[in-house]
Request: fold
Amino acid sequence: MIEPSTRIDVQSLVRADLVVIGFGKGGKTLAATLGRQGWRVVMVEQSADMYGGTCINIGCVPTKSLVYQSEQRNGSDAESKSDYYRHAVFAERALTSQMRAENFAMLDGIDSVTVLTGRARFLDPHTVHVTRADGGAVTVEAQHVVVGTGAEPIIPDIPGLRESSVVATSTDLLATPDLPPRLVVLGGGYVGLEFAAMYAAYGSEVTVLEHHRQILGQEDDDVAACARDIMRDNGITVITGAEVRRVEDGPASSATVYYARDGESRSVQADVILAALGRRPVTADLGLDAAGVRLTEDGAVAVDEHLRTNQPHIFAIGDVNGGPQFTYVSLDDYRVVLDQLVGAGNRSTTERVAVPYTLFMTPPLARVGLTERDARAAGHRVKVAALPVAKMATVPRARIVGEPRGMMKVVVNSDTDEILGAALLSYDSHEVINTVALAMRHGITATQLRDEIYTHPSMTEAFNQLLGALV
Reply:
């Protein structure tokens, strides 16, 4: 390691122990940890608006802030709907601005860490050129490099879509304080449905167009159907089996989306079209070829179980490596890389089991492990319990808060009593699912989880009844 010294001066050439490209969760945590240990670290972020990464600025924090604000609205006339949404957006912006400043200060306050705002590009495996936002340039030579540039939304090649004046990505939609009167969402996956639910709660007229036979195609049919019923109850029009053919702009910042369903041509009007059809790793213009770094067929940076690329001193963490696109996975990526750089080098991604995830509709859908469909397909003999929340008499918490909608489902290995997976579509499910995941990771059986003592009234005590219903 290069001898630690004072903060790197921003000059034409600097030498560092570590360059981190991208201010996301894993990268910033690694930079801070090693910087405090005396490593000379350079953090490169292309925009001052992205200090802290996707989660804080255009992902988890702003969307969940807007979801929360939407749940506080109790209905009003058209004018106050727009005003309420505008107020919610400004509150979200204040929150993200504060967190962005805190994240910058976290690194800027460490003497051996320098934050460069600009675009990074490899010149060779150990050299990164940074074109700074202020017009200057810095070349950094580093012993180790971590690529954490994240992922970006995809706008598919549908005739007229990319050229439309009303098409938006999730990032674009978060940037406007104007509530769209009519929102058409292309894609019935997690991002699409989260935005659909949120904007419907603010008062937009929302239509979801999903190509497959059901929304949430990775979920069991009963769970997906329950989510769809809740969305319909909230006034969202969900159209499955819809093949979008083209988009045509109309007058007054509107457009028509033409699609086919069951062989019949149909259309829907939109003031905003949200393209929620997937994300791709951000690798363009990084000069990875100059570094000799290989990509996968999907365009992600190829890594091994220790997150090393084919260049052993270059790592890739977070969304850019093609793994699950969750902030908490990026944080675990940090632990893997840290162990490679200053630890025993044993930690790897193969140790990850029972990683939960949540769709923040209202109420939220949280999932972990195998679905019933996948468990049976894998050859497991299973027991299943699936109960509507409204019929779970021992779970009054949902009624207390006025949100008894949804269902809870758990899948258990009938031979070993091992919990294989769970889907919780219910109030506070994003918290409760962590209990299931912890049980799965540490071998706590379904019977043990069923017979635990839980606080009352809480959603966690649902396990007493739910796991008692296994058949």
Residues 13-152+280-351 form a domain with the FAD/NAD(P)-binding domain fold (CATH 3.50.50.60).
